[in-house]
Amino acid sequence: MSNNDEDLSSFLMDFGFTEDELFAVTYELDSYRSIPGTTVKRYLNRILQNIKEGDREAFLKGIMVGVVIRKAADSMVEPELTEEEIRVAKEIERHRFSD
Question: What is the maximum span of the chain, computed from C-alpha positions, in angstroms?
């Protein structure tokens, strides 16, 4: 389990989900993703075909929340420095320690 998986598990358990629930859902989703040739569209179609009519709205809410969380996480990650930015940072450090 990667650190990101552990962070997500802790985050979800803070909302009252149990470890068993998380494992069951993760296992089911991993089994869909392991099917060769699965695209996101096919993946979602397979899941939707197995969801009861009354659960579709909850599933859609889950997708939307997941997208929002992903966008928030992506916005917190700073992009890698360019070569020029690295050069400037080294130059600044060099001048700072030479004084």
Answer: 70
